[in-house]
Amino acid sequence: MSNRSDRDRPTNLWDRQFSSDFDFPPTDATTHVVICSTPRSGSHFLSHQLHETGAFGYPLEYLNPANFREWARLSGSDDDRAVFDFIKGKRTGRNGVFALKMHYSHLPLFLKLEPDPQRYSFLHVSRQSKIDQAVSFARASQTKSWISDMPEVAEAHYDWELIFDKLTSILVDEAKWQAYFLASGISPLMLEYETILQNSQATINAASSFCGIDISNAPPSAVKFKPQKQARSGGADWSKSFLAEGTEKIAGIVTSRAKQQVSKNKNRSGFWAALSGFSK
């Protein structure tokens, strides 16, 4: 049984997502939506925009490992499927819509727990400026400030290699999402963060039409939390510096990492050679 007192008194920003203030009366899920994203792509902003329509349930990152552990504690179960059912029971909207958002790293757990992934409508959120996204990702990973009103716990500092690693991670995960969609025969609605910022209502209309959700009569969410565009000082300068230093830095990074990989391969070959000799 869940500990309701823990959920009724959120003490910080992370706790707030588990608050019973965001629960709905028990309703069977008849419409399913998943927002597919990469870090710092604007999916958090979109989730709250959709939530405030009152027609999309509350699409949060339920399968994030830390979040899922807390839901497991609240549910009182150590069975993953039972925990997922518990989440659906709390966060399926009055109109029968259950929605969640996830990064590609959450997909294995989703496929393990969801008996019919094809019943979901897939929304894919990306960002036009991948370098700005990588800068935001690098900064957030340093400061641990992942949303607009979350305080920074450490100072951010410009690090070309860290930004490059985050850029690579974003592009790899984008490619993995596309591979999953193609291999599964899924045609997602493609959304861009910059367009969402310019006209969020048009995005909401497009998403509701795509998912077959009527937003005209949905009561708006009584509990509102509006994340703001997270504009930290230095971001634009970091993007400019990253591009200005790219030609010089990239050669050194690629060469260095190629040498490291060759060294690893040699060590691996030596291990297997030794193992082969031992077995004779």
Automatic annotation (TrEMBL):
Record-linked Gene3D superfamilies: P-loop containing nucleotide triphosphate hydrolases (3.40.50.300)
Molecular functions (GO terms): transferase activity
Keyword Transferase: yes
Organism domain of life: Bacteria
UniProtKB keywords: Transferase
Entry-linked Pfam families: Sulphotransf (PF09037)
Domain Sulphotransferase Stf0: 34-242
Keyword Transmembrane helix part of the UniProt annotation: no
Signal peptide positions on this chain: none
Protein name from the UniProt record: Stf0 sulfotransferase
UniProt source species: Actibacterium lipolyticum
